[in-house]
Amino acid sequence: MTEEQDPTISAEPKAPITAEEQLMEYKDKYLRLLADVDNTRKRMQKERQDATRYAVDSIVVEMLAPIDNLENALQHTQHMSEETRNWAQGFTMILSQFKDVLSNHGITPLTSEGKAFDPQLHYAIETEETSEFEPGTVMKEFVKGYRNGERTVRHSRVKVAVAPGTIKKQEQATSETSQETTETKGE
User: Fold this and answer.
1) What structural domains does the chain harbor?
2) Are 169 and 152 in contact (CB under 8 A)?
3) Contacting residues for 160 by C-beta, under 8 A, at least 6 apart
4) Tell me: the pLDDT tens digits for 43-72?
5) What's the rounded Cα separation, in Å, for the pair 119 and 181?
6) pLDDT tens digits for 19-40?
7) Distance CA 38, CA 34 (A)
8) pTM here?
């Protein structure tokens, strides 16, 4: 077969790429690479900021336990001698400085008592059946929670109100489920 008869060979040769087309192709590649480099730089910068933020948060969490202990100790000084209360006043000033440092870095305490339970902010360690509070309301805060901007650094540990009879119903449902599981395994 000759070239004229072979359908795979085109009769017209491809036109050579002009210098202008080649320039446009290189310009397009250059702009894409430039955008990729810029995106990589921005992603690395964000990752670095996140790593720093989380490192600061972990240090803050470690500092909160001694601050809590100092607050708890200072709450019991009113029944002490005058000399002890004077010492406590100095420690209260130091505690205030610690809280100011946290505040200057955007770490703020959560106010929980009397507010609705929010799993993003609170960790329920106890529930109590009561009609004094609306169900789902935080009755008592055992350990203060803190936030860094919009992120929760440490959840508040709280007691949450539930409707009367709720706990008994949950216990019955749990025992019925465990009996069904035991009966199923025994078959």
Assistant:
1) 18-105 (3.90.20), 108-187 (2.30.22.10)
2) no
3) 117, 122, 124, 126, 127, 128, 136, 137, 138, 139
4) 999 999 989 888 888 888 999 999 999 999
5) 30
6) 888 899 999 999 999 999 999 9
7) 6
8) 0.65
